Amino acid sequence: xxxxxxxxxxxxxxxxxxxxxxxxxxxxxxxxxxxxxxxxxxxxxxxxxxxxxxxxxxxxxxxxxxxxxxxxxxxxxxxxxx
Length: 82
Ligand SMILES: [Zn+2]
Hints:
Blueprint: H1 17-26, H2 33-36, E1 39-43, E2 47-52, E3 57-63, H3 69-72
Antiparallel strand pairs: 1-2, 2-3
The structure holds zinc ion (ZN).
């Protein structure tokens, strides 16, 4: 169990396939895939993206396509432009 918090709705985590391949080959001791991954997650002009910082590559990108973005944000979501 990852969390007892009822707001946690994740059924399957997103990982970079290249990171996953490396992780499976090297199997760093006492390190989880969650720690090994170097992912950036954020809003885009169209929706949402997960970016692998380790491989400088897109992992997942989705457009909200008219859905109210506020509906997709959790109450603890804070965005900041960099
Ligand atoms: Zn990666």
